[in-house]
Write a structure and sequence with these properties.
Largest interface: A-B, 29 and 29 residues
Number of domains of chain A: 2
CATH class of the largest domain in chain A: Alpha Beta
Number of strands of chain A: 9
Distance between the termini of chain A: 50 Å
Radius of gyration of chain A: 20 Å
Oligomer: homodimer
Shape of chain A: elongated
Chain lengths: ~230, ~230
Amino acid sequence: MENLDNFFKCAFTVDNVIFGFDEGDLKVLLIKRGEAPYEDMWALPGYFVYQTEDLDSAANRVLAELTGLRNVYLEQVKAFGRSDRHPVGRVITIAYYSLIKISDYKINAASIARKASWHSIPTVPELAFDHNDILTACFKRLKRRVRGRPIGFELLPPKFTLTELQHLYESILETELDKRNFRKKILSMNLLVDLEETQEGVAHRPARLYQFDRDKYEHLFAKGFNFEL
Amino acid sequence: MENLDNFFKCAFTVDNVIFGFDEGDLKVLLIKRGEAPYEDMWALPGYFVYQTEDLDSAANRVLAELTGLRNVYLEQVKAFGRSDRHPVGRVITIAYYSLIKISDYKINAASIARKASWHSIPTVPELAFDHNDILTACFKRLKRRVRGRPIGFELLPPKFTLTELQHLYESILETELDKRNFRKKILSMNLLVDLEETQEGVAHRPARLYQFDRDKYEHLFAKGFNFEL
DNA sequence: TCAAAAGTGTTCTTATTACACCCATGG
DNA sequence: CCATGGGTGTAATAAGAACACTTTTGA
C-alpha cells in the first residue's frame, strides 16, 4: 500500500437538482453564483460535505438552507468525478435530486442572497462546472423513476385535478398522453381519493379535486402491488 | 465561504462488483483482504482513486489489475459515503459493477496474491466495510438494467445455447421463466444469429448454438427499437 | 351564446400467459 | 433402452391504443 496521506487531499460536494412543477411546467431551482469560480453563472445548489456528515444529510442540508423545506423526496443519482471538473482541486460531487411542492417554497433570506430562481427544464441556460450533465442525469433518473413509483405526487399540491396530474406526467415524460386512457389507468389503481370538491372561479366546467392516498399505497405496495404507468 | 483547506482532507475509492456467470450460477469476484482494516475478510476489489484519475478510469484500472480484462461492460451505480464507513478517515467510495465472461478470466499473479475467488450471489459471506450494501445495490441495478438492455450477453461466451441464456436471466432476475415463451420472445427480436452448429459430447439431444449480433442491435437501437424482456 | 376545459365507453390490436409432448444423443 | 435436456404451437386472457361527443362554468 502506498502512503495513505497522498490520498487524503480531496474534497467532495453534493449538488441538488430541485424539481418543482408550476404553471403546467417542470422546473428546476438554480442559483446565481456569487463567487469564483464561475462567478455570476447559474449553477445547481450544492456545497461541500463536512467531515462527519453523511452524504444524504449534506444533500438535505443544502435543500433546507435554500428552501426551508425538510422531509421531502430526495434521491442520490450518482457521483461525478472527472479529474478536471473543479478548478480549485480534486472535488468530486454526489448528485441528488429532490421533488418539492412549489407552493410550499418560500423565498427566504438565504435564497434571496443567492439569487435563486426557477427555470423551465427545456430552457435551462449554460451552467457552472459540469452541472448541465448532472441535470441531464437527474432528469433522466426522474423520468425512469416516475413510471414505477408514485413519486409524481410529491410535486403537486395536496389537492389536484386529474388534468394537472396528467400535465405533470407529460412534462416529465416529455410526451403526450391520451386523456381517457390516463384517467382510466390512474383511477383503476385506487390510489386517489375523490375529495368531492371542485375548482372554483375557473371560466369553464370546474374539475374535481383529488388527493393521493399514501397510506393506501404503502399498504398495497407491501402486498406486492406495482405502480406502473 | 469557510476556509476551503478544511474540506480537502478526504479520500475516495472505487469498489467494483464483478459479475460472472458459470455453471448456471451468477457469481461475484471477491478478494480476501491481506491487510488492516478488516484483515482476512472477503471484500469487493477496490482501490483509492489517484488525484488525476477519472472515476471510470479508476474502476477500469481496478478491474484490469485483478482480471487482466479491458473494454468490458462497466457501469457506475452510486456513491456510498456514511461518515463512519472507513476506520482510517473520511473515505467515500464510488460503486461500479462490471460484467465479464468468466471463460476469459485467467487467474493472474495479482489475483493469486490477493486470493481472489468467485462466490455465488446467494451465498456471499459477510464482507468488509459496507460492501454487502454495495453488492446489494449493484445487484439490484443489474436486475433492472438487464430487462431493458441486452447486456446479459456480456456474461456469456460468444457461442451459447438458448437454455444457457434462459438460465442466466433466471439467475439475475431470481425467477423462473417459461421455456417456450422465453424462446419465442428472444428469437422474435432478431438479435441472435443461429450459428447452425450444435453442442458436442452431451448426453442428450445437442442444443443449437447462437451468437449475439451486436451490430444488428446498434442498428435497431438507433431506429428506436427497445429491448424489453 | 361563446370559449374553454371537464368528463366519459367502446372497439381493435397487441402482448402475455399457460400448458404437454416428441426428439436426439451418450451411456 | 433409459435418462437427460432440446425443441416446438395454440388458445385464452389481459393490457394498451385509438378515438368524439356532451357537460359545466364564467365572461
